[in-house]
């Protein structure tokens, strides 16, 4: 029997991406709201309670409202907002994060989809801190650039209207209070929030995140821990070969667009004990809708790659 899925907020960027990935699947029955009733709370409540899985693609306050509208004990939830990412009773939906994480997601009633920015740094730092190759109480900084789709409909419209005059490197989060910081700190295993400086580029989707290190272990040590960690965790994260290069020509934030892939790189100078840990992925794929579909697959027992 097909699992019934209601995407609350299916008209938004993430909702549309998820719907596209699910539309042709025979193991999924999509329930949709009449566009004329999108603001009808009673109708939304009816559909939320009729679904086996509700995927929330809404702003934080609206997501909290939707969860409160679920009155039965059967509807399971995947929330794509940041409302519940560090909340008690919610399972973090980054399946490759830990050996047992996929199993925890499969059995969860409430799953909080990861934010796009934290996934790269968490994938890079958590295994190294767990292996005591890096210290959890050190001061870390995280940098990166994402496509403008990460800013939602308003930013998409502004960038596309600006065309070639759009800012190619727009720094933001300059108050250093980005909403993803608690998530980064908790799931990377850090004792304090990192210094985070994100940027938006003049491309639609794709992203690169970078964690620079000083006083670093050797590149081989860093690479070995990451390689061994993700080799034993089925999923969509892999580690690029360790290279000694001045530049990597194909290291492009858009290289995995349209996929659920996340690739990690270790770049190191052992003589100066400096390194950069780099993650490349699609902010709308593994960073949002792809991760939601992966979590859905786990929750309904579907094939790992279904819809991905």
What key attributes describe this structure?
2 domains; 9 helices; 21% strand; globular; alpha/beta; 308 residues; 6-stranded parallel β-sheet; Dihydrodipicolinate Reductase, domain 2; Rossmann fold
Outline:
By secondary structure, the protein is of the alpha/beta class. The protein folds into 2 domains: 3-114 and 287-300, Rossmann fold, CATH 3.40.50; 116-283, Dihydrodipicolinate Reductase, domain 2, CATH 3.30.360.10.
Please identify the oligomeric state: single chain
Tally of distinct domains: 2
What is the number of strand segments?
13
Question: Numbering strands along the chain, what is their spatial order in the largest sheet?
Answer: 8-9-7-10-13-12-11
Note the overall shape: globular
Give the proportion of residues in helices.
25-40%
Instruction: Catalogue the unreliable spans.
Output: none
Radius of gyration: 19 Å
CATH superfamily of the largest domain: Dihydrodipicolinate Reductase, domain 2
The CATH architecture name of the largest domain reads 2-Layer Sandwich
CATH topology of the largest domain: Dihydrodipicolinate Reductase, domain 2
**Strand percent estimate:** 15-25%
Q: How does the helix and strand content classify structurally?
A: alpha/beta
Distance between the termini: 21 Å
Overall pLDDT: 96
What's the helix count? 9
